[in-house]
UniProtKB/TrEMBL annotation, chains A, F:
Transmembrane segments: none annotated. The lineage of its organism: Bacteria, Pseudomonadati, Pseudomonadota, Gammaproteobacteria, Cellvibrionales. Keywords: Cytoplasm, Transferase. One of its GO terms (biological process) is tRNA wobble position uridine thiolation. This is tRNA 2-thiouridine synthesizing protein D. It comes from Microbulbifer donghaiensis. Belongs to the DsrE/TusD family. InterPro entries: DsrEFH-like, Sulphur_relay_DsrE/F-like, Sulphur_relay_TusD/DsrE.
From TrEMBL, chains B, E:
Belongs to the DsrF/TusC family. Transmembrane segments: none annotated. PANTHER family: PROTEIN TUSC (PTHR38780:SF1). Pfam families: DsrE. It comes from the Bacteria. This is tRNA 2-thiouridine synthesizing protein C. InterPro entries: DsrEFH-like, Sulphur_relay_DsrE/F-like, Sulphur_relay_TusC/DsrF.
UniProtKB/TrEMBL annotation, chains C, D:
SUPFAM superfamilies: DsrEFH-like (SSF75169). It comes from the Bacteria. The lineage of its organism: Bacteria, Pseudomonadati, Pseudomonadota, Gammaproteobacteria, Cellvibrionales. One of its GO terms (cellular component) is sulfurtransferase complex. PANTHER family: PROTEIN TUSB. This is tRNA 2-thiouridine synthesizing protein B. NCBIfam families: sulf_tusB_dsrH. GO terms for biological process: tRNA wobble position uridine thiolation. InterPro entries: DsrEFH-like (IPR027396), Sulphur_relay_TusB/DsrH (IPR007215).
Length: 130, 120, 93, 93, 120, 130
């Protein structure tokens, strides 16, 4: 079955971000497909390359990146939500004349249309928020 | 085959970003011909109060987003009557504008008719 | 005497009811942000405590009328309430 | 038939009660994250709806026992519930 | 003159970061000889449940932070009895460990005795 | 009277960040002192130099920076909370071997002890969260 996930919460603030990663791993393990993970609202912070949790806390970024590599996941960060919150790709950083970029490898910025497309193309959409 | 999509709008406007970002997602989907229906319930019904003036708190009115919905093919919105009653509100007191509001007593039955539900 | 600042809707959060459980004679209540939804409907008629203040800008933002039982304040009034009371206790979740 | 996923404590959020208002015959309820606090105390004895599932890892994290009226699931069971039901409705605020 | 500081702990552990970050703030203050008292109320009383095992959700147990408090001079913690009753909990069922728990019926009167209240 | 503020919420996610800025402006206008603003939890995102809200939305970062310049404010971002969430100074970025820094001018990283110190030194502490 084809799943997509919508993630609205930042790592290290809400458990929902960690729940989404666990759910993604489990559905792939169970033989399902993961069409897309769409990071929206505070969820865009999952795509920040600068987060540095203490050694003894879970590194969600590393978790998403490993899963992305293994399964060629489509990890999409909403470009409008990310701009407001300061998650920028190289090209966005230069376009907006900002001093640095911080979008992590394995994630890409795209418009909200990618959420609508995920809903249309998937058998199930599961939202992680709060 | 087009999917039937419901946006479940449960947040009051302005206090957090979810009400605004939810409507932006619905508008973006409609612009791509994925028209979602909307169900306002819980504190989401406060999005429909008339005469919101958020300039004093440095925000834009959400009512502009609501009134833009019909331009993108969203022709009506559902409102949970139980949520209204809990808050002492009448459907008639809400801002209808270009977006007619349809009262819903049985939100469970309504939700069951959709292929996908986006929670905001 | 404490100033209690409540910033969440009483219809979806227990911030206000938790606050009222910790409200002493002589304390004051200030509603800000989504806390001003306490002015909506039935809850406005008989405030559970006195005095109740609300930020005028937050009520106007949300299209709410301020009933006679509640005193509207601007930002300067907000600062004055904080200066007049101690401790200031925030109820935001 | 819908799967309703509730992730907030029923003692501080209306997520669960709002969900129960939208719960149809044949739907299922899954408690995750702080939603598992619905297993605490009195609420666990007579679940308002059936069937009720909960994530075992979230209950264990919080030191909660899972009563007989509730079915514990692991992550694979969570995926299976989502595959078996449609739509999946999240109640997270 | 040392100020009397109260940390008001109202959040359940693990679902969001505030319970953890609140305790970290209290520990940091105590390490600087600004010892705060703690009042657990609302869902904050769930921080005190025994036998929390959050390894399965990728988190560290908050109980280590609680048990570290006495090492920094926090000798007891207050617990709102009304919050316990609302949740069907008894004080005896909570994890006392090195940190004795003191039941409080009148949290308003307790709060009034402090110079500063940190909400978490 | 001497105030300190504790800000726990990110801009563009919760109104609390904007409320804090309004309150800070008002208390200075009324002739009070602002000893420190301590950004904790998700509030650390207020100190990100990369946020780029749309032109027609309030730019809280610019607001804090202007107030800081005008009144030499002490805007302190909790270093532990900021590391977890990806808000880094130049020196933190190089120490943690991260590709970029994003702490905005006018803000500084410091430990949680600065919150305790603010409580001790101020007549009033007002918390903005949620």
């Amino acid at each position: 079955m084809k799943f997509s996930l919508a993630v609205y919460s930042a790592p290290h603030s809400s458990q929902a971000a960690a729940s989404a990663l666990r759910f993604a791993r489990a559905l792939l393990r169970e033989g399902h497909q993961l069409y897309r993970v769409f990071f929206y609202c505070d969820g865009v912070h999952n795509g920040s390359s600068l987060s540095a949790p203490p050694q003894d806390e879970t590194d969600l970024l590393a978790g998403w990146q490993a899963l992305q590599q293994q399964h060629q996941l489509d990890l999409v960060v909403c470009i409008a939500a990310a701009q407001r919150r300061g998650v920028l790709s190289d090209s966005e950083a230069s376009r907006l004349e900002k001093p640095a970029a911080n979008l992590a490898a394995g994630f890409e910025l795209a418009g909200l249309g990618q959420l609508a497309d995920a809903v249309a193309q998937s058998d199930r959409l599961v939202t992680f928020g709060g | 085959m087009t999917k039937r999509i419901l946006a479940l709008c449960r947040q009051a406007p302005y206090g957090n970003a979810l009400a605004r970002e939810g409507l932006e997602a619905v508008l973006a989907a409609a612009a791509m011909d994925q028209v979602a229906d909307l169900l306002f319930c819980g504190d989401g019904v406060f999005q429909l109060l008339p005469e919101q003036s958020p300039a004093g708190i440095g925000q834009k009115s959400l009512q502009r987003n609501l009134q833009a919905l019909p331009l993108f093919g969203v022709e009506q919105a559902y409102v949970c009557t139980k949520s209204l009653a809990q808050r002492g509100l009448d459907l008639e007191a809400l801002s209808q504008g270009q977006l007619p509001l349809v009262p819903v007593d049985d939100s469970a039955a309504l939700i069951a008719t959709y292929d996908s539900v986006l929670s905001f | 005497m404490s100033l209690h600042i409540v910033s969440k809707s009483p219809f979806s959060s227990t911030a206000l009811s938790d606050c009222l459980d910790a409200f002493a004679e002589g304390d004051a209540l200030l509603l800000i942000e989504d806390g001003v939804y306490a002015l909506s409907g039935r809850m406005s008629e008989r405030p559970a405590v006195q005095p109740v203040y609300c930020l005028a800008a937050d009520a106007a933002a949300r299209g709410l009328q301020i009933p006679d039982s509640v005193t509207a304040v601007d930002d300067a009034g907000w600062v004055a309430l904080c200066a007049e009371h101690n401790p200031v206790v925030s109820w935001f979740k």
